[in-house]
């Protein structure tokens, strides 16, 4: 099997990380990156270096155990591998390369014997709490095997309420050895882009209680149920030319109502929940691959370990505060399907995913609880721009925010950009500029913060001139200084922030700047003087 270039890079850089660091790294690989291939290649290579190397691949899902085992056997047909999973009715505890579900093996940490390397698929499922199956198993294995090393694999290496997996004194993982993102894979042609269509607003979640950090399922069920008929009629029309649909809802009750509504439109639809028997689940997924089943409604499942490349439409009727869950759900429709001519995937966002989390390729790990929060914001009902709560006029379209509550409107899918490349930049008039030193964090050098003042909002651009700063960053900062200066370009850029502030009179106040409203803060992509 020939590895993709980034798969080989991930392997090489992870071995190097282990050689140069203590602790446990994570390979942050987005959906479709081929984590099972990377794991299989690493297992094979480890056994080439040490013929007796004992390796465990542990995860929470029997489907992932099957997939990862099959990938290794495909790469290495004579691999000394076995499976330990009650769901799969196999318990080969002493295989040299052992694939296991944590639910089946967590009490076997002492019995399993020597272990050299542990690979954890979907490692974001590991909680920091001590009284868990993961904690018991990993603690027991480490007591028996003092030198065991562990590598995590995830496309979303963070947890709701806990933040990034590699941060904090109680972190189980200690660094990212390699990262390949959704946008990287789209640009390289290994995933299809996801698109949205302009349709209006989303299901309102204001006032819903939260349980365990996410929306209370009982209240969410009622909120979604009231709008199911309208939503189904809308996405059935939008999906006429789409082959296979995944629909995500909060509860079994919602799923039944959605399936019934879809059936009334003469379209096949099945329901998959965490309690669906494995044989039934396999039948449904195979039917979707073959084209005999048009759609499936998922309740709390089908977010990992599911490979239906033919799926080209996803319907979001399951609002969530979990950015990791959002990425996993959207990831179900990003895989390539050359045999069906799939060129993109359509997202019907009735759950407010993009309004709450932003473009999927720019989602950042949430902060851990107790470590501060994001400033309050509100959203323009005309153009969907997210702005600070105190702003009374939208800086993008000029919409005046009313003091009274807006009237209730029927549910429609969001028209926000699903990828940052689809976000349209806007031009903002500038009235003044301000300059100040911005202290560096975590040992990074200070920067010069240039604040562009508009009538309604400020926008910041950061330049660096300090000698210890990255040379590339200093070069780009010098180019930006030359662009903004009155004097000819051949004038030398400042050699420090203090010098830059002393020379601020050399810079012109632009007439307008172009801003791209993506990510946590708007990005300045152009400065205009005419």
Automatic annotation (TrEMBL):
Which residue intervals define the domain Helicase ATP-binding in the entry?
26-157
What are the Helicase C-terminal domain coordinates in residue numbering?
A: 216-383
> This chain belongs to which protein, by name?
Helicase
Annotated GO molecular function terms are: ATP binding; DNA binding; hydrolase activity
Domain of life here? Bacteria
- GO cellular component terms listed in the entry, alphabetical order: cytosol
Signal peptide residues are none
PROSITE patterns reported for this sequence = HELICASE_ATP_BIND_1 (PS51192), HELICASE_CTER (PS51194)
Q: What InterPro entries does the annotation carry?
A: Helicase/UvrB_N, Helicase_ATP-bd, Helicase_C-like, Helicase_Restrict-Modif_Enz, P-loop_NTPase
What Gene3D superfamilies is this protein classified in?
Answer: P-loop containing nucleotide triphosphate hydrolases (3.40.50.300)
């Amino acid at each position: 099997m020939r590895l993709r270039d980034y798969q080989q890079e991930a392997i090489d850089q992870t071995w190097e990380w282990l050689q140069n660091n203590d602790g446990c790294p994570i390979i942050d690989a987005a959906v479709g990156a081929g984590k099972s291939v990377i794991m299989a290649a690493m297992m094979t290579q480890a056994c080439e270096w040490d013929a007796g190397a004992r390796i465990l691949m542990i995860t929470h899902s029997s489907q992932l155990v099957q997939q990862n085992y099959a990938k290794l056997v495909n790469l290495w047909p004579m691999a000394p591998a076995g499976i330990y999973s009650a769901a799969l009715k196999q318990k080969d505890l002493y295989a040299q390369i052992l694939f296991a579900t944590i639910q089946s093996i967590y009490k076997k940490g002492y019995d399993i014997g020597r272990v050299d390397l542990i690979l954890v698929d979907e490692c974001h499922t590991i909680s920091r709490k001590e009284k868990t199956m993961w904690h018991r198993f990993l603690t027991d294995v480490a007591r028996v095997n003092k030198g065991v090393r562990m590598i995590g694999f995830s496309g979303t290496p963070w947890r709701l309420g806990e933040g990034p997996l590699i941060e904090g004194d109680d972190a189980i993982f200690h660094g990212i050895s390699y990262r390949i993102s959704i946008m990287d894979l789209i640009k390289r042609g290994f995933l299809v882009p996801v698109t949205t269509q302009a349709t209006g607003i989303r299901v309102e979640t204001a006032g819903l209680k939260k349980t365990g950090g996410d929306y209370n399922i009982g209240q969410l069920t009622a909120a979604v149920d009231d709008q199911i008929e309208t939503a189904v009629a809308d996405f059935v029309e939008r999906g006429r030319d789409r082959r296979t649909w995944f629909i995500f809802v909060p509860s079994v009750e919602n799923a039944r109502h959605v399936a019934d509504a879809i059936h009334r439109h003469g379209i096949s639809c099945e329901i998959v929940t965490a309690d669906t028997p494995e044989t039934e689940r396999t039948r449904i997924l195979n039917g979707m691959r073959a084209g005999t089943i048009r759609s499936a409604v998922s309740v709390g499942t089908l977010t990992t370990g599911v490979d239906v490349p033919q799926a080209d439409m996803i319907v979001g009727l399951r609002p969530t505060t979990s950015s990791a869950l959002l990425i996993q759900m959207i990831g179900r429709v990003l895989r390539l399907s050359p045999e069906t001519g799939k060129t993109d995937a359509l997202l019907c966002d009735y759950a407010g995913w993009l309004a709450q989390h932003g473009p999927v390729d720019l989602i950042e790990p949430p902060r851990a609880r107790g470590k501060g929060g994001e400033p309050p914001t509100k959203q323009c009902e005309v153009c969907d721009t997210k702005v600070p709560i105190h702003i009374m006029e939208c800086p993008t379209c000029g919409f005046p925010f009313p003091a009274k509550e807006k009237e209730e409107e029927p549910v429609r899918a969001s028209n926000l950009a699903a990828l940052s490349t689809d976000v349209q930049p806007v031009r903002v008039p500038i009235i003044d500029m301000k300059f100040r030193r911005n202290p560096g964090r975590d040992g990074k050098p200070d920067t010069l913060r240039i604040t562009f003042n508009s009538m309604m909002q400020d926008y910041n651009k950061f330049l660096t001139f300090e000698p210890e700063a990255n040379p590339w960053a200093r070069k780009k900062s010098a180019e930006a200084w030359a662009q903004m200066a009155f004097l000819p370009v051949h004038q030398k850029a400042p050699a420090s922030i203090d010098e830059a502030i002393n020379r601020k009179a050399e810079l012109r106040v632009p007439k307008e700047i172009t801003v791209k409203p993506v990510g946590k803060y708007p990005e300045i992509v152009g400065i205009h003087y005419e």
